[in-house]
Amino acid sequence: MDPANDPAVAAEQARARLHEEIERVRSGVEEMLTEQDDNAALRQELQEMKQYVKKRIRKSEKRTEKRLSKLESRIDQVEADRQHAEWRLHTNTEQMLDGLLREIRAIADLLTRSR
């Protein structure tokens, strides 16, 4: 599979961007807290934001893992179907060739008897 189209790579990149954004917001909020050290409401809001972000990340990771699992299952099924089709193709070809060989032998037997 092309790495540019790989869902796992895309999920990892999205996760990295999300973490970068979280860090950017966190550093901004912490900078504000430093300026307003005694503001407990901001600290509480920061804590709530951290919990919210953690919750969202967990949900996002679970959804991503579920999607990847479904894709992996589908890939496994397609591979199994391909192997079965390949087996059928070889089996049918072998049976066809065996039938042709029997017919050629029968024709050869008829030609040798008629001499």
Keywords:
115 residues; mainly alpha; rod-shaped
Strand content: under 5%
- The helix/strand series, from N terminus to C terminus, equals HH
Beta strands, count = 0
Q: Which class do the helix and strand fractions yield?
A: mainly alpha
Oligomer state equals single chain
C-alpha geometry: rod-shaped
Average pLDDT over all residues: 87
Per DSSP, the total helix count is 2
Tally of distinct domains: 1
Proportion of residues in helical segments: over 70%
Structure description:
The relative contact order is 0.06. This protein is mainly α. It contains 2 helices and no strands. It has helices at 7-35, 40-113. The two termini are 63 Å apart. Helix 1 packs antiparallel against helix 2 (40-113). It is rod-shaped and about 115 Å long. Helix content is 90%, strand content 0%. The chain has one domain (3-113).
Give a summary of the structure in a few sentences:
The chain is mainly alpha-helical.
Q: How is the topology of this model organized?
A:
Blueprint: H1 7-35, H2 40-113
